[in-house]
């Protein structure tokens, strides 16, 4: 890929992120045009709008991860266990895997619709409101099949929300600030996971209420973002035939740097979710918990430990990567640290070992996601197709979550949880190595 003199900004993107016209907007910002056919959203005072936008991004992402983690880590495993305790591992793998397949297919589609409309806020608001309905449905069903259907509908609603809010950073934040912006976005994961797990654990005996509360949280965040982060409509995109869209999706992966970023993200996420997705069952069946400590209460302890570590490393990694103008070393080191963390429960399958694992894994994953997100925005092939291309990248998030439940259930069935941790460590190392061939970002 041809690079601009800024060295880490793709040539196609630089028209919307030059020093003279920083691409930031929120609130009262107005549109200007840097070229005849590629308008950039800008403002006369970039610092203030960035400060206004980042808290809204943090809030929106916190609510999103609260639902994903609260449902995936606590409510869904408990609901499936109540329906069929003997087959809980296989059933959770099936439901999670099918839902992740839908998310993988749906996210690029939702991103393309957002690009074509020239708007982000309506899709954020619509997805947030739909989340309430789907969570209410999920809490009311009473068979594994209906749980699977309802969670798939919930994934569809959340992917409209996620595809649009993920595109706000490349839309409105200049490349020089994307590490900081990505840190604000990344903080949504530790904060959201803590909030989601605490809420889900509080309603572990009232699953229907727990689902509804998490859905309402997303709807509230969506209304807040769409109401305060006002946007000006970008030029609407011409309808593209489905065959051409599919070709464009595949064409994105022909870009060398984007392809390696995709591979690195996919490998680390696969290792991460193969373990974290089964944390409740790991605590039930593998770890000797202190007397009187329920597994769902143990998750409510471990999640804040991980979240605090993740928050520290997210901010530190994002800000330092901006100041040093380096992305790849942070991504590689954090992926390697994640591998080391996954070996801790192998060497010490105890409650203290799980606490140490949660802290170290939080440090690693927080830094990785913050800096890797900034790195990815710098290797996007096209600024005007940002949501679509980030939707393709999201396959590296959702795709491994398709494979992870099936792989994890098979590994646990064959050899228990120790081989599962070891497999996660190997995948994390491979993810660290995958960033080395990227040329367009240092």
Structure, described:
It is a single chain. This protein has 442 residues and is mainly α. It is globular and about 55 Å long. α11 (256-276) runs parallel beside α16. The chain has a two-stranded antiparallel sheet with strand order 1-2. The relative contact order is 0.16. The two termini are 14 Å apart. The protein has helices at 11-14, 47-83, 88-117, 121-140, 144-166, 168-172, 178-186, 188-202, 207-228, 242-252, 256-276, 279-285, 295-324, 328-347, 351-377, 386-415, 417-434, and strands spanning 30-33, 39-42. It has a single domain, classed as MFS general substrate transporter like domains (Growth Hormone, Chain: A, Up-down Bundle), CATH 1.20.1250.
Layout: helices, strands, pairs:
Elements: H1 11-14, E1 30-33, E2 39-42, H2 47-83, H3 88-117, H4 121-140, H5 144-166, H6 168-172, H7 178-186, H8 188-202, H9 207-228, H10 242-252, H11 256-276, H12 279-285, H13 295-324, H14 328-347, H15 351-377, H16 386-415, H17 417-434
Antiparallel strand pairs: 1-2
Helix pairs in contact: 2-3, 2-5, 2-7, 2-8, 2-9, 3-5, 3-16, 4-5, 4-9, 7-13, 7-15, 8-9, 8-13, 11-15, 11-16, 11-17, 12-13, 13-15, 14-15, 14-17, 16-17
């Amino acid at each position: 890929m041809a690079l601009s003199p800024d060295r880490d900004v793709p040539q196609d993107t630089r028209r919307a992120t030059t020093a003279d016209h920083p691409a930031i907007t929120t609130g009262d910002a107005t549109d200007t045009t840097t070229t005849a056919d590629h308008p950039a959203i800008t403002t006369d005072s970039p610092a203030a709008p960035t400060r206004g936008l980042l808290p809204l991004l943090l809030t929106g992402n916190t609510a999103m991860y609260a639902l994903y983690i609260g449902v995936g880590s606590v409510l869904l495993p408990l609901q499936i266990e109540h329906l069929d305790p003997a087959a809980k591992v296989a059933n959770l793998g099936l439901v999670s895997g099918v839902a992740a397949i839908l998310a993988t297919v749906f996210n690029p589609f939702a991103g393309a619709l957002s690009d074509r409309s020239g708007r982000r806020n309506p899709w954020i608001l619509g997805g947030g409101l739909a989340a309430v309905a789907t969570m209410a449905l999920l809490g009311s069903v009473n068979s594994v099949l209906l749980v699977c259907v309802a969670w798939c509908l919930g994934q569809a609603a959340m992917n409209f929300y996620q595809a649009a809010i993920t595109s706000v950073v490349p839309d409105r934040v200049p490349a020089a600030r994307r590490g900081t912006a990505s840190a604000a976005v990344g903080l949504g994961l530790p904060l959201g996971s803590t909030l989601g797990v605490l809420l889900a654990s509080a309603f572990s005996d009232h699953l229907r209420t727990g689902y509804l509360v998490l859905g309402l949280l997303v709807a509230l965040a969506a209304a807040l973002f769409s109401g305060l982060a006002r946007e000006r409509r970008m030029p609407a995109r011409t309808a593209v035939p489905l065959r051409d869209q599919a070709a464009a999706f595949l064409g994105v992966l022909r870009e060398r740097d984007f392809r390696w970023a995709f591979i690195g993200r996919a490998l680390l996420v696969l290792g991460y979710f193969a373990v974290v997705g089964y944390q409740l069952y790991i605590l039930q069946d593998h770890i000797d918990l202190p007397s009187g400590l329920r597994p769902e209460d143990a998750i409510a302890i471990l999640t804040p430990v991980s979240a605090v570590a993740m928050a520290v490393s997210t901010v530190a990694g994002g800000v330092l990567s901006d100041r040093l103008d380096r992305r790849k070393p942070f991504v590689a080191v954090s992926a390697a640290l994640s591998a080391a963390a996954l070996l801790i429960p192998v060497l010490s399958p105890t409650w203290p070992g799980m606490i140490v694992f949660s802290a170290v894994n939080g440090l690693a994953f927080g830094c990785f996601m913050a800096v890797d997100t900034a790195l990815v925005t710098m290797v996007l092939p096209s600024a005007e197709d940002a949501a679509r291309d980030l939707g393709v990248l999201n396959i590296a998030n959702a795709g491994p979550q398709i494979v992870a439940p099936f792989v994890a259930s098979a590994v646990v069935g064959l050899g228990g949880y120790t081989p599962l941790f070891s497999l996660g460590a190997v995948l994390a190392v491979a993810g660290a190595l995958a960033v080395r061939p990227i040329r367009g970002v240092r």
